[in-house]
Amino acid sequence: MDEISLKALAKINLGLDVVRRREDGYHEVRMIMQTIHLYDRLDIAKCPEPGIHITSNLSFLPVNENNLIYKAGKMLMDEFGIDSGVMVKLNKRIPVAAGMAGGSTDAAAMLYGMNELFELKLKRSDLMERGVKIGADVPYCILRGTALAEGIGEKLTALSPMVKCPVLIAKPQISVSTKFVYENLKLDENTLHPDIDRLIRDIENKDLQAIAGHMGNVLESVTIPNYPIIAEIKELMRKSGAVNAMMSGSGPTVFGLFADDETAQRAYEDMQRSGLAKQVYLTSIYNNRRE
Q1: How far apart are the C-alpha atoms of 4 and 27, rounded to whole Å?
Q2: Catalytic: which of 17, 40, 106, 137?
Q3: Residue 137 a catalytic site member
Q4: Quick one: pLDDT at residue 291?
Q5: Global pTM?
Q6: List 11, 71, 92, 234, catalytic entry
Q7: Is 188 a catalytic residue?
Q8: N or C: which end of the chain has fewer CB within 10 A?
Q9: What mean pLDDT do residues 146-175 have?
Q10: How many whole angstroms separate alpha carbon 241 and alpha carbon 58?
Q11: Confidence band (pLDDT; 50, 70, 90) for 288?
Q12: Helix residue ranges, H only, 52-134
């Protein structure tokens, strides 16, 4: 095999709770991660010129060691003494800096692709162990599907597959600093924590209405007061028929879950007309995992 084409899938958080701030400055979390059908495409090919050569459809993305694709490729090249060069063509569709693990899923795809191209014979668990050195979300992006993430996000437990349904994605034309959100998060007796265990039971029961009712993201308490457009997008999705809408990760992307395709399509058109979001996608829940 000299080349491989891969889909790097985005994620949303059906539930995101921050348990405590650790002494090392990191935050301990409990999150329910879910893969969706929105994806970047990576075309990876061997080339005679040594090194990692990345091109992208977005001119502002770094194509050097500051790109997680590059870091993932270099890690395996160094470990396995790979002399051959690699060309990566990245077609980026997942919104950037949007709380959807766009960079992490690209790195996960690179690890998977290098393993296949160079026949490294690494198991999925081996790739996940290496992935955490690149970023806390990378192991999940290798696992995919529905999973509970704990610790700083690196401790993963596969869950029952989420019920399949349409998902509307809307990202406003703002950027949100994850560092800012976590630094300004206040955890006290007034903090409203989502019931992650209840949400897990709802997912096991395949009960979309219950899942929608128990979704929660503790980071909204910081992001929405600073960026009220997120609340406007959530409200429009609900008015347009979403069973619920919520911010993914630290934002600013909002996702809405829908009970049927027809309502979701109308909501997509409503969101496009509103001008609230710069990027709008209609996609769906994805449950297949890589073996």
Answers
A1: 37
A2: 137
A3: yes
A4: 38
A5: 0.94
A6: 11
A7: no
A8: C
A9: 94
A10: 33
A11: confident
A12: 68-80, 102-117, 124-131
